[in-house]
Each structure stands twice: as C-alpha cells, then as structure tokens.
Design brief:
50 residues, mainly alpha, single chain, flat
C-alpha cells in the first residue's frame, strides 16, 4: 500500500501471459502479413507526396 501511495502515477498493467484467442488464432499470420504490406504501401505513398 505504501508503494502505491508514494508513487505519483499509477503503475501500468502489463500482461505476463499472452491472451488466448482461439477464434482469431488461425488468422494471426495472415493478418500480420496484411499489416506489413499496408505499412509498406503507406511508406511508398508518403514518399510520393509533394
């Protein structure tokens, strides 16, 4: 309790175990690929802007 009262800001919550997502699980790899492609396209478009 003293540690919480001495701190000016509350400690951030960090998850120690990854969240289980059984429904999303099989699609995670595909989503990661799509996001990577999107990032590349965004960078290319930003370079072309005057």
């Amino acid at each position: 309790m003293r540690k919480a009262l001495d701190s000016a800001t509350p400690a951030a919550y960090t998850r120690t175990v990854p969240y289980a997502a059984p429904t999303l699980g099989p699609f995670k790899a595909g989503l990661a690929e799509l996001l990577a492609e999107r990032e590349q396209i965004t960078q290319i478009t930003q370079m072309r802007k005057p």
